[in-house]
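Handout, section B. The chain below has 456 residues.
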Amino acid sequence: MQSLQPQIARHDSDELSWVDMWLAQMLRHESYPFFEPLLSGNTLEEVAGYLYAFKSRYPNLLEKQERNDPLRDLLGQTGIRDQALIERLTRLVEACRARSSQAFRYMCELANRPHALTWKEFRAIRAKWESDPRPALLKALIEGHAKGRGVSVDDVDREIFETILLDRGKVLEEAAQAKPLPEHEEFADRAGRSLLMIQQFLGELGGLDAQRFEKLYEQAKYWIGFCKNPGDLALRGQEEDTVVRLLSAASDELSTELLECLLPSSFDPDVGDGSSALREQLRRKCMSVVAPKAAKEAVSFLARPGGIQSLTERDRFPAVKYCLFKSDSPIWKGEIRIEFIALIRSGRDDCTVYSNVSDLFDLMVRGLRRGGDSSIDTSDVGSLLSNQEFSKAMWDTVTSRPIQYRMQMSYIESRQLLIQNGVPEAALALTDELKSRLEEDAQLRAGRQTPASPSD
């Protein structure tokens, strides 16, 4: 434990779990080749942490876990064969399962992978910043801490946002539990200062990304129903202003990632307190800010080599798919629609755009046949194609180049499907080669239907 003194000194006494620390050090000294891979990925949680505890509560999961014991697998992967060592490690792991806390991973990493920022260090940074809450001072404090600890600014950035957000969550909990109103208002004021710190870090200091925004947005959604007290109401307004301001400042490219955090979720339980309606109201306001910028980025996919084809990859570009294939997307309204259709028409002269428009046409047609790509929701395709200007622009572009003979009938059949779904026939003019192929096909059909002459 003597070797941990420099790390222990970085913490306040309430930050450390001595039981966890002893268990971690015993595992580490018993077998470092076992200890190091134990900390990789979710291995620790599966072997001795919350994932193991969760499965232990359910007999069917525990039975499956026993057949595929992560501890046995880890021992096999590390190549440990000494039965006495295996027994000692097993007993230590069982002790961890029984006695370790949620902070066990942190204690395990104390010696090998110490965090760039402890709660004690964060409180010192926050106190200095609160004396003069400017973005420039926050930046200087982060850089100064990184230099003093001998770590990168990125390392501190990664941890300080999580710490501010977690600290703010604790303060909001305390505000909710406070009984005297003055005490509640004191906690609310602290939560407001934390929110300002977050706003400066994500905004002025350029720390905004989709993952961080989603965590802040989820925190705002969680507390949105707490709005009876004046302090609560002020906080909800500050939270809404902050997320809207961050979305407004985001680039078009980042906006597509941010939009993914705002797409409708199938899981939004209404517990009868009116919070579900408030969450939807906040979501719609955020969407109105970020969706038009994301729509511009989605339109640019037509000008990228393989842009539309990349949308068929599962779990990629959900915001772009929403913009292109949902009727309530900004692409289908106002100036963005005009830009979108103009870009489609440019495919008659631009090979990249032509290829993407052709892929988009195929996806739209497959959507009408209810055989669309399973990674894309094409349920709105019918209403999108009812826009005659869009349908005509797309058809004119995909038929602007000669079509090989074997594929001509598929274009003719797709055209007929569009007509059956309400696209005016006049908007889908046949080229000379398609007219010729249609006539040829009609002659072949007529020839098959003509009965053979009786033999003499």
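Note. The chain has 24 helices and no strands. Compare this with the example in section A.
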